[in-house]
Amino acid sequence: MRKRLPEWFKIKMPNAQLMAPTKSSLERWRLHTVCQEAKCPNSGECWSKGTATVLIMGDYCTRGCRFCAVKKGRPAPLDPDEPRRVAEAAREMGLRYVVVTSVTRDDLPDGGAGHFAATILAIREQLPESRIEVLIPDFQGSTEALAVVVEARPDVLGHNLETVPSLYPRVRPQADYRRSLEVLAKAKELDPTIVTKSGIMLGLGEGEEEVRQVLADLIAVGCDICTLGQYLSPSDAHLPVEEFIHPDMFQYFARLGEEMGMPRVVAGPLVRSSYLAEEAFLGRI
């Protein structure tokens, strides 16, 4: 049974009328979003503001992370027209800042890196003045696949560590903490000017010192932006919430990270890697 939310945990109620244009565009262009598939608590707020995080390469993931609501199973073949549709939707929605993520596609030789690159290039063609943030999987540690995405020149390249290393066997059994750190390190080696971003969830049973070590590890690989948010269990079949972290503790970690040398830390119960992404990039939050 899932724990009840504490009184101080407030989720804004969505405004269906304000959300309607975003919903209409996404449906018209037949796009998935991480907002829906991952059951993000901020989807109502973001859609009401005319933004959404597009989920490319289908809605089935080849991995079985125990925190994630995205469906697990055998994905369909890639849709070569999807990059164009993402770009058309972004243009129709008038986005100045486009955030694109994906399911993990371990079934593909390049992990979907080429599809990411094609999507970035399609958006650039439609919206040359926009900024583009991608949140990528680990491509099973392939530097060649990572280089394909970096060479398409997104403004921000994100890859989430998700949790502290001691919890990986329980939370992300098919992932590897050091491999994920290497993704961020190699991105900087390939292009020292690229902005890198990562994030972790709190409330899964991690210790304060472990969070401090994650921040130190991210700083060591040159990560520019770090997000910290509260883990919420999507269903009784997923990992339970071990603890609801008080907002004061999130602010403590934000100050700690910045004091340690992290350029930008965005922390709070409702913070997610793509939440208020443009504001995080511009340093407005």
- Could you list the spans in which at least 5 consecutive residues all have pLDDT below 50? none
Number of helices: 11
Strand order of the largest sheet: 1-2-5-6-7-8-9-10
CATH architecture: Alpha-Beta Barrel
Total discrete domains: 1
By CATH, the topology is: TIM Barrel
- Structural class by secondary-structure content: alpha/beta
CATH superfamily: Aldolase class I
Helix and strand run: HEHHEEEHEHEHEHHEHEHEH
Identify the overall geometry. Answer: globular
Helix content: 25-40%
**Cα radius of gyration in angstroms:** 18 Å
What separation lies between the terminal Cα atoms? 34 Å
Using DSSP, what is the number of strands? Answer: 10
Query: What is the CATH level 1 assignment?
Result: Alpha Beta
For the largest beta-sheet, the strand count, sense and barrel status come to: 8 strands, mixed
Describe the structure.
With 285 residues, the protein is of the alpha/beta class. It is built from eleven helices and ten strands. It has a single domain, classed as TIM Barrel (Alpha-Beta Barrel). Helices cover 38% and strands 15% of the residues. An eight-stranded mixed beta sheet has the order 1-2-5-6-7-8-9-10. α5 packs parallel to α6, α6 crosses α8 and α9 packs parallel to α10. The longest helix is centred in the middle third of the chain and has 14 residues. It is globular. The mean pLDDT is 93.
In short:
The chain is of the alpha/beta class and 285 residues long. Helices cover 38% and strands 15% of the residues.
